[in-house]
Write a structure and sequence with these properties.
Elements lengths: L12 H9 L6 E5 L2 E5 L4 H17 L3 E4 L3 E4 L5 E3 L3 E5 L9 E3 L5 E5 L6 H15 L4 E6 L4 E9 L2 E9 L3 E4 L5 E4 L9
Parallel strand pairs: 4-7, 8-9
Antiparallel strand pairs: 1-2, 3-6, 4-5, 6-8, 9-10, 10-11, 12-13
């Protein structure tokens, strides 16, 4: 049996952090399951979804903020590095933590799919496992390809035990510690 990339990563996490730190602004790098991935730079509709979601979070969870593009240490033993589109955390949680912060205080990680070939593996498979492995209570995936909103919750043993989805236009409940219902009708305007 051939060892997986987790057993034999492309590089050490310290090497990745140095590479990511020196990458040009037009590139977003992540290190998940022992391999380097390139995350596309968001387009206007992607940015509007994050703006819309920030507003919803401000109204319903005023003691927290949806931080865009905050680097997080993910996966077992913190060997992964992800840059979610949004990380809902208490105000000032990331103060002094640097580019790659501890994910244990994050209430919700958010990803919005982009039109790239790696979106399926990265956003739908690898990142849920990474976020669950470090105990992020809620993972919200806004899937612009399929016009669905996924809510992953109840992390246990590196996986989310509960996954629900709703088409754009429906209502999804974001469980505690987020604790509010998200009306998704507006996402139809940002789908492309």
């Amino acid at each position: 049996m051939t060892p997986s990339s987790v057993d034999r990563p492309q590089m050490y996490v310290e090497e990745f952090e140095q590479l990511a730190h020196h990458a040009p602004e037009t590139v977003r790098l992540e290190f998940i399951r022992g391999k380097v991935g390139v995350k596309p730079v968001p387009n206007g509709n992607h940015g509007e979804i994050i703006r819309w979601l920030q507003k919803q979070c401000m109204q319903h969870v005023p003691e927290a903020w949806l931080y865009p593009e905050q680097g997080l240490k993910v996966e077992q033993y913190r060997k992964g590095r992800a840059r979610p589109d949004g990380a809902l955390a208490p105000e000032e949680y990331f103060l002094g933590q640097g580019e790659w912060a501890d994910a244990k205080g994050v209430l919700m990680a958010v990803e919005v799919t982009s039109a790239d070939s790696d979106a399926n593996a990265r956003d739908r498979l690898e990142k849920p496992d990474g976020y669950a492995a470090v105990g992020v209570p809620v993972y919200l995936l806004i899937d612009r390809d399929d016009h669905l909103v996924y809510v992953f919750s109840e992390p246990e043993g590196g996986k989310y035990r509960n996954v629900v989805n709703q088409p754009f236009g429906g209502r999804v409940d974001l469980p505690v510690p987020v604790g509010f219902s998200l009306e998704t009708e507006k996402l139809k305007d940002f789908a492309d």
